[in-house]
Amino acid sequence: MANDRLRDHQGDLWTPRGPVDIPFLLLTLLLLGIGIVMVLSASYASAYYDVKKITGNNATYFFTRQLAFATLGLAGMYIVSRLPMSFFRRFSGLIMLIAIALLMAVLVVGTVGGGGRRWIILGGVSFQPSEVAKIAVILYFATLICRFRNYMGTFKYGILPFAFILVAIVGLLVLEPHFSASIIILLLGAIMMFIGGTRLVVFIIGIAGVGSAFLVLLLGSSYASTRIQVWKDPFSATKDDAWQIIQSLYSVGSGGLFGLGLGQSRQKYLYLPEEHNDFIFSIICEELGLIGAILILALFALLVLRGYWIAMHLRDRYSFLVVTGVTSLLAIQVFLNVSVCTNLIPCTGISLPFFSYGGTALLMQLAEMGIILSASRDVPEKKMIRKRKRPELRRGETAVPEL
Q1: Which tens digits make up the pLDDT trace of 134-176?
Q2: Is the distance from CB of 283 to CB of 41 less than 8 angstroms?
Q3: What contacts 157, CB < 8 A, 6 or more positions away?
Q4: From the centroid of its chain, how far is CA 220?
């Protein structure tokens, strides 16, 4: 009996876990494979003609590094997928403390770049603490919601602790400044609170208050106000401020219906900045056209829908909350990145999951997929009930009903 059943950290019994969700795994691997190919196609020009001598004029510099991090990320995804969900619940508080500590550290020892101080360099590898903060909000909010599940309709338990955490994290992000991460974390917090059972009236009042305060910060920041002015009319803005979004629009528009062909982008030849990072979707549109871009977005849509399907079929509340949060994070980042590349929203530094170059970001994204795969092991399997075939009756015999 001891071998058949295990106990989690709370002492509850749970049955042996099943296999991971194969459709979700295959969609993740497919998007990752396409993303690595697009990094090679989008980056080789800037890597070869690198004026800063970072890449050593090696055309495959970004591709080989992304491939190496993808390999590590897949190993990490497998390890994470083997961990029980109780593991993430047990250490969610510690992960939140680490995230806040890193956000505080980046203000002191962080590296300046992209208009803000957002990166920490450890061992020659840079990473954004905001990536840790995103998953920390999901894991810790799910823990709090389960702890206060009978009191989520009150202000003291359903609003106050969550608002305190959001204000602390977003406040640190604004000081960097990192408005895109602030928006994502606010949206994540709102989603987690809403599905957690916060009363709708209190929820709306809280969101309105936080949103108003954040809007005031945006309008009061010269950095953000410049981005908004460029967004409203990029072709009338100054050349330096609007250069990136104008080149992105050229790239998206020149792809047409079927694209110029894989590797045939023109804007990646030192015209479009961050062509292999935040604006890789523009290169996708240029090389693969509208059809290729729609197919990739369809794969993302299927991945998101499958994530929500897994969440709806889970048996415990904590796993449901975490999977819903991670899936929502994926959906938010895809939507915001595509919106920036097409100038639907002001330009912000948001990467496209599995596609944008960035080793630590890719590791975090694959680890998050590992969490969903871990939860999918607890989805009850559908058992096929086989009907017993009744023996044929001989002539003259009568059927006796089964008792």
Answers
A1: 999 999 999 999 999 888 888 888 888 998 999 899 989 988 8
A2: yes
A3: 148, 151
A4: 29
